[in-house]
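This is your field. Pick holes in the following sequence-structure pair:
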Amino acid sequence: MIRRHRGFHFIAHTVMSLVTLSVLLPFLLLFLSSITEESALLTYGYSFFPKQFSLRAYRYIFTASSKIIRAYGMTVLVTAAGTTASIALSALFAYPLSLKNLPFRKTITFFVFFTMLFNGGIVPSYILWSTYLGVKDTVFGLILPNMLVSAINILLIRTYFQSSIPDTLYEAAQIDGANQLRVFTAVVLPMGKPILITIGTFTGIAYWNDWTNGLYYINRRTELFTIQNLLNRMVTDLQFLSSNSNLSATLGAELAKVPSTGVQMAIAFVAILPIIILFPFLQKYYAKGISLGAVKG
């Protein structure tokens, strides 16, 4: 029996090690490619053992260091404000749906679910946000459209509230004289912290990686660009120069000095680095959420 357990543990650890490597190796390859000389990349391709190291890609990016810092600040602001507002609205919507005595609960839940299947499309949404709600070229254009409230987040939070918070706690709080707002803040939010942080992490990553809102709603005020929009603009400018390098010999000579492939790798690494750093600090809440669900089941 002990040998069988040892064999199972060996196989389980081997499989998990392979899965971990499959996740980490692409990030390592991305970073190594960003510090590889452009000529070596073009000659030998991507490699875990670069033939020649170079930091020219990062020097090219940080020539606009003031823009990078401002874009990072805007990204942090948008991510923090959007994630906080999204979690607050989702939790406030999900809590009533988790109550069994809510009138028309199934009907409201159906309408929430319906929005997961059908929507108006990009053009009507753009007209609504830019023309009627006036978020164009404002910071609200980076926060409100598309990601502020998600039907799937509402349903996930509602399901967690239903399955992981006993009805006896609601009854005890109400016997003590607590109203619904007090129950929500004193009972539901503390016990729902794992799912709220989990959904908040996904929402925060979506805000951090989003560049479509900036593309659609930020046209003139480029100082509102997030890091994704700024880096995307740098890649677009680089591609434009590459496609028009025959306009002058000087432009072609200067362009030859720019490590275009390395810049794209460096841009991708710079964009995802904060998420990689933050994720381990939130991992305990995922484990806690899974264990609570397992105990309840």
In short: The CA atoms of residues 41 and 169 lie 61 Å apart. Residues 260-296 form the longest helix (37 residues). The chain has 15 helices and no strands. The chain has one domain: 29-41+52-296.
